[in-house]
Write a structure and sequence with these properties.
mainly alpha, 30s Ribosomal Protein S18
Length: 81
C-alpha cells in the first residue's frame, strides 16, 4: 500500500474493463436500441468516456454514431436536466 497525493493506492486497485459489445458478441450497435445506448450516457445525456466505460475505440466510434442518429430521430434527448 502506498499513499500518493493523499490517495490510497493498492496493487489490485486497477483492472482492465472489458468492452460491453465484444463481451456480449454485439457486432452492430443499433440506434433504435435505446436501452443499451442509455447505459453509456450520463444523467445530463452526454456520452461517457472510454476510460470509464471500457469500450474499445472502434465500439466508441460506432456508439457515438448510433447516439447521434438516435438523437436526430428523437429517440434520445440532446440535453437532460
Amino acid at each position: 500500500m502506498q499513499i500518493r497525493n493523499s490517495v490510497l493506492v493498492t496493487r489490485n486497485s486497477t483492472y482492465m474493463k472489458q468492452c460491453y459489445f465484444t463481451e456480449n458478441h454485439i457486432k452492430y450497435i443499433d440506434h433504435k436500441d435505446v436501452d443499451i445506448l442509455k447505459k453509456f450516457l450520463n444523467p445530463h445525456a452526454r456520452m461517457v468516456s472510454r476510460k470509464k466505460t471500457g469500450v474499445t475505440a472502434k465500439s466508441q466510434r460506432n456508439l457515438a454514431t448510433a447516439v447521434k442518429r438516435a438523437r436526430f430521430m428523437g429517440l434520445l434527448p440532446f440535453v437532460s436536466r
